[in-house]
Amino acid sequence: MSLDSFQSCLARLIADPDYRDRVRAAGEAAIDSGLTERECARLRTIARDKGVDVNRTLHKGFRLGKLRAMLPLTCHLLGTKRLALHVAAFWKNHPPSSFYFIPEALEFCDFLERRRLRVKYLAEVMAYERANLEIEKARTDAPLPQRVLFQHDPRVLLAALANGQRPRAVARRPSLAIGGRDDRGRIHWQLIEGMENDAVTAPA
Amino acid sequence: MRPLPKLGVGLAFQAPLRPLIERAGEDLDFLEVVPDIVWTDLGPGKSPRYVDDDAALEFLGRMQRSHPLVPHSIGLSVGSAHHFERDHVRQMRSWWERFPFPWHSDHLAYHLAEHQGQVMNVGITVPLARDREVLDLLIPRIDEVLQSIPVPFLLENNVYYFDIPDAEMDEPTFFNALCDESGCGLLLDLHNTYTNARNHGWDSLAFLSRLNLEHVGEIHVAGGMELDGTYLDAHSGPVPGPVWDLLEWTLPRCPNVGGVVFELFGSWFDTVGEQRVREDLRRMKDIWAATQGAASNAAVTA
User: Fold this and answer.
1) B47–A140: do the CB atoms touch at under 8 Å?
2) Which of A184, A194, A127, A135 is nearest to A158 (CA)?
3) Closest partner residue to A14 among B82, B122, B129, by Cβ?
4) How far apart are CA A53 and CA A14, in angstroms?
5) Long-range CB contact pairs, A150-158, < 8 A, 24+
6) How confident is the model over A60-81, as pLDDT tens digits?
7) Radius of gyration of chain B (CA)
8) Residue-wise pLDDT tens digits, B128-185
9) Which of A16, A99, A101, A183 to mutate to probe the B interface, most B CBs <10 Å?
């Protein structure tokens, strides 16, 4: 049990800078009980080691990389500075509790929604990527069809983001996208636009 | 450890390296794959928990006809005191049934820990305390792996940017004891050794000369970079000079080694360039041929 607790504390030293600061400042008082004297001494020493900063950087890079992989269009739309700001705020209250990164990406979507950001196209782009993740999450079951209401032409909007461009002046064209899986298990979207009925492919 | 089949020189698979891998010809003897990147882990309790990336598996299946596959997984977290990922072991067993690999490996570290009743993934390999208590945790787990997957199992020496102080054993003593008592082999990552020695101010050769190199089943080489005064095992470049020196010293002293693998992250491939990667692979092959003899791909269907 003690080794288990020690490893938890060590992981927190890397992932949670506030906890590390407390261990640095308060020593024993900040460390969970149940650890041996040697384990407490080890944590105090490690908390002062600059190698923890390196690990923290690598940890953040790993976690951010996963978010960017799961929500590439949303992250691109936010831009580097804004993304860094919101990710930092998100991480402050969301320890990396899951290593199955779809739940973390979905939680990040919830977090961004609650912030009610005034970023053009964000709501629909995020809804689209979130729907893709919901389909992915239900990979082994028959996923419920996902519905995303677009206010702007999704073919133009998503293609621009997928090509690494910032979308500009995308035509307002309300449409409904319905996502699911095709016979080969690939995510497939159908676009219903007025009387038109068009198939679109999810950008990779 | 029993001698491994002499596969020769391998490259760690990354999707951006696919074109190079497909036309590598004699520059490449085998392919190492992190299997965790070609499946999706849906988490404990899901059935099936691991969902394959069919396109990647199709590619690997095709490659396996000419190049043996050796998995180097990242999901075991063998040193986690909190729990042991037996689902991962079962998944590796199913991989062995699909791609009958001659050996496999993971990392001597942990990345999963308990936090507020949940499993926290640090996402990096966190060092283990080199204590008897940790050996006693690892040995039965390694035995489970060896019982489940009847081919040699190697653990990689970790890169660490801080060390856990007041260890009961130094690194060579710990690795030697682990291999002697558990039956696993060592995946000796020379770039990790170089990185640790450079950052912590010790001598790589002194470390290597105290290792029982009969335990070494595979060697990794890679390149890295300096960031804010710390040298990183970033897999971001060609093999640096000091690591070549370590390889030339070490390889002839490893009687049971099966292969040497170059690790390069796919995102750095364009920067390094195909020509330089090929040059490094050829240099590895020259060193291999001079010290281990001819490579054999007899293990393709082993």
Assistant:
1) yes
2) A127
3) B122
4) 7
5) A150/A124, A150/A174, A150/A175, A150/A176, A150/A177, A151/A124, A152/A121, A152/A124, A154/A124, A154/A128, A154/A191, A154/A200, A155/A191, A155/A200, A157/A121, A157/A124, A157/A125, A158/A73, A158/A125, A158/A128, A158/A200, A158/A203
6) 888 898 899 899 999 999 998 9
7) 18
8) 999 999 999 999 999 999 999 999 999 999 999 999 999 999 999 999 999 999 999 9
9) A99
List phi, psi (to 5°) of B213: -75, -5
Phi then psi dihedrals of residue A190, to 5 deg? -120, 135
Instruction: Give me the residue label for tokens 């049971």.
Output: B256
> Taking CB atoms and an 8 Å limit, are A4 and B161 in contact across chains?
no
Helix (H) or strand (E) holding A150: strand A146-152
Instruction: Give the distance from residue A120's alpha carbon to the nearest chain B alpha carbon, in angstroms.
Output: 30
pLDDT in the model for residue A195: 37
Instruction: Give the start-end residues of each E strand in B82-131.
Output: 104-107, 110-115, 118-126
Chain A residues whose beta carbon lies within 8 Å of the beta carbon of residue B114: 4, 7-8
A44-62: pLDDT as tens digits: 999 999 999 999 999 888 8
Determine the 3-state secondary structure of B160 from DSSP: coil
Complex ipTM = 0.93
